[in-house]
Amino acid sequence: MIGLSDTVAALLAAIPAAPIRSLLVIGLGAFLEGPVVTVAAAALAGAGQLPWWGVWLAAVVADVVGDTLLYALGRHGDRPAVARVLVRLGLTDARREALTREVHTHLPRIVIGAKLVDIGAIPAYLAAGLANVGYQRFLSWVIPATAVRAAVLVGIGYAAGDRLAADLESRPWLLLVAGIAVGVALVLGRLVIVRATAGRRRVHAR
């Protein structure tokens, strides 16, 4: 969540004079910070400062662009220099073979799982590119999953912003606090999912 306060400050500064520019800031913030910025921006929509559909669209585009960049990097993973980058991003030799095999046979499950647990998205999408999964097939699952995920995040933020509309005008820092709180909750939720999934795999392995 590094830079979140700067992103929120930019949003608040851009909205009065240039709502379109603020949506571009949201897109950049969602690309760099992920769900926390999406929820924070949606809270502004709930407070009547931005259109909810604009926040949703900016979040979806930012997410799909990020996923595409990972996929494109994976497509060049056979090059030695790129292969070293993939290892640093979490696609180790041990995970490489298993994930490339999985994305061929279980791409929908891999994509949906990565959307639920962001920490697994980077190696999964790198593996999709490395396995030469067709880009259209990749997008056919990534875009719907991203749209649903963004809608849930926007809904959470919008509901919070609607309740805090009056307070946000006099105390905009509440948006930052709420965004960080949601971000922490999401991180904890991911950790629980990751540990539960790892526990199930160990049981099956036995």
Automatic annotation (TrEMBL):
InterPro entries: DedA_domain (IPR051311), VTT_dom (IPR032816). Belongs to the DedA family. PANTHER family: ALKALINE PHOSPHATASE LIKE PROTEIN, UNDECAPRENYL PHOSPHATE TRANSPORTER A. Residues 38-158 form the VTT domain. It is a multi-pass membrane protein. This is VTT domain-containing protein. It holds the Pfam family VTT_dom. The chain crosses the membrane at residues 23-47, 53-74, 138-161, 173-193. Keywords: Cell membrane, Membrane, Transmembrane, Transmembrane helix. It comes from the Bacteria. It is found in: Cell membrane. The lineage of its organism: Bacteria, Bacillati, Actinomycetota, Actinomycetes, Pseudonocardiales. Its main location: membrane.
